[in-house]
Amino acid sequence: MRPLKITIAGAGIGGLAAAAALARDGHSIRMIERASAFSQVGAGIQVSPNGMAVLRALGLENELRTETVRLAAVRLRDGPSGRTVATLDFGRHAGDLRWQLSHRATLVAHLAAASVDAGASIEFGVDRALPPEGQALEGEDLLIGADGIKSRMRALVDNESSPFFTRQVAWRTVIPDAWREPVVEVHMGPGRHLVTYPIGDGQRNIAAFEERAEWVDEGWNHEDDPDSLRAAFAGFGPEVRRMLATVESVHLWGLFRHRVAGRWVRDRKVLLGDAAHPTLPFLAQGANLALEDAWVLAAAIRQHDLPEALERYQVLRIPRATRIVDAATRNARNYHLRIPPVRFAAHAALKAASAIAPAAMLRRFDWIYRHDVTSLEV
């Protein structure tokens, strides 16, 4: 295929990965980003093996290994008592796979450098009007909408998303890391749970979730009082309370359920990442799905004429994105059981499964983690 002139709206993880992959193939890539600079907001991120496959193909795995933390295990704990319910030992039962725990800014910086090194340009503070629906692109072969949950591109390709508030909110913050154990801990309690893990450079990520009726706006840029976070988890064990006592600033946002776009392609405009499939954070797959999207789109363009490439991308990605978004939605219920006998029975079952068949607990997610888009026939 001849080199294409491509504009990417949005310089997040998906947009940057697409820019790196497409620029390496010789296409002219211009990225436009509404923000004035890359933001630190967003804190920690879990890159699972399916996302690592893309970073490996982009030549970034070795760099990230030195700056991030390799996940060794996931530990599920009862929030109020602090008692360990189950442990998933990744080293023992999935040692051929790699999960990395990182600050989002670290991953973004490496993807941005890879994009620029490959020849892409990034322009900040660009809030251009997108072309109206049905209007041809001027001077561009393709416009990629990687502009996130509140995508303006989505309305040009599919129907606008009509999200509904899930009656759940999330806090996110980073604290100094005094524990340093390469483990994700999930503290589960009635109507709430808290996830914590190290992200390197002496920092620990905290993401905390609470069910509530009051509506909270969507987005990562809403600051909240740390005392509100501490109050929500005052009934949890001393380790959680000790961590939260060190929180100096925190962001709060509402969790909204979006449907996956039914159409990702229209008139040489294509959606990618959260613009196409916003997902709740209960499987840690938002960034990983965006990495997969970026690779598949670039591979399809490499192997097919543009109209066929865009159709192949859409056909390959919609079913998988839909399945993961649905699975993430269901997963929240497992952490928030309120009725004591139900919680006791569920935790007892998890404890037994962890002792009797720990590998099986991980294998049920093989369809997510062992899916390698870089080896697929596109």
Give the SSE layout.
Blueprint: E1 5-9, H1 13-24, E2 28-33, E3 44-47, H2 49-57, H3 61-67, E4 69-70, E5 73-78, E6 84-89, H4 90-93, E7 100-103, H5 104-117, E8 121-124, E9 142-145, H6 154-157, E10 164-176, E11 183-189, E12 192-200, E13 203-211, E14 223-224, H7 226-232, H8 238-245, E15 250-257, E16 265-266, E17 269-271, H9 286-303, H10 306-335, H11 340-356, H12 358-363, H13 366-369
Parallel strand pairs: 1-2, 1-9, 2-8, 5-11, 9-17
Antiparallel strand pairs: 3-7, 4-7, 5-6, 10-13, 10-15, 11-12, 12-13, 14-15, 16-17
Helix pairs in contact: 1-5, 1-9, 2-9, 9-10
Explained architecture:
With 378 residues, this protein is an alpha/beta fold. The chain has 13 helices and 17 strands. The chain has an 8-stranded mixed beta sheet with strand order 6-5-11-12-13-10-15-14. Strands 8-2-1-9-17-16 form a 6-stranded mixed beta sheet. Strands 3-7-4 form a 3-stranded antiparallel beta sheet. The mean pLDDT is 90.
Structure summarized in a few sentences:
The chain is α/β, with parallel strands linked by helices.
Gross morphology is globular
Lateral strand order in the biggest sheet: 6-5-11-12-13-10-15-14
| Distance between the amino and carboxyl termini | 15 Å
Query: Mean pLDDT, nearest integer?
Result: 90
Q: Class by helix and strand content?
A: alpha/beta
Radius of gyration: 21 Å
- Segments where pLDDT lies below 50 for 5+ residues? none
Count helical runs: 13
Percentage of β-strand residues: 15-25%
Name the helicity range: 25-40%
Key phrases:
alpha/beta; globular; 6-stranded mixed sheet; 378 residues; 8-stranded mixed sheet
